[in-house]
Amino acid sequence: QVHLVESGGGLVQAGGSLRLSCAASINVFSITAMGWYRQAPGKQRELVASISIGGSTNYADSVKGRFTISRAGNTASLQMNSLKPEDTGVYYCNANFRTQPSSWGQGTQVTVSV
After folding, report:
1. What is the pLDDT at residue 50?
2. Which residues pair with residue 70 across a beta bridge?
3. Regions of the chain with pLDDT less than 70
4. What residues contact residue 39 under an 8 Å CB cut-off, 6+ apart?
5. How far apart are CA 85 and CA 75, in angstroms?
6. Do the beta carbons of residue 80 and residue 15 sit within 8 Å?
7. Were both Cys, which of 19, 67, 73, 101 would link to 63 (CB 3.0–4.6 Å)?
8. Burial bucket for residue 57 (CB in 10 Å: 0-12, 13-18, 19+)
9. DSSP codes, 5-57
């Protein structure tokens, strides 16, 4: 199983910024896509942003213009600017691979205070 190690997250005031990173324990050539999901209390897990190995990106409407996903090698990062209280939740990294099952990170808490 491929391990995903997340870092970043924490507590920030509304309007602030945070950066999340996710490193996969696998050769970059085995990765097809990486992404970030989040789950707020009482809600389903939702896609925040994803990036393919070719660099194509996809964002949830709620974060467009504020969040930016990028990838360098086997590490995906999510730069989150102009954070809002509704961005609060546990953020999970996800990665898809050519020949192995998809993997999830352990999750990192992001809390945005008013």
Report:
1. 98
2. 77
3. none
4. 45, 46, 89, 90, 92, 107
5. 27
6. no
7. 67
8. middle
9. EEE--EEEETT--EEEEEEESS-GGGEEEEEEEEE-TTS--EEEEEEETT--E
Q: Which residue has the tokens 């996969």?
A: 24
The letter for the amino acid at 45 is R
pLDDT, tens only, 37-60: 999 989 999 999 999 999 999 999
d(CA 111, CA 114): 10
Short-list 64, 56, 68, CA closest to 32: 56
Neighbours of 2 (CB within 10 A): 17
Instruction: Report DSSP state, residue 91.
Output: E
Hey, what are 96's tokens? Answer: 């898809």
Q: What span, in angstroms and rounded, lies between the C-alpha atoms of 8 and 1?
A: 23
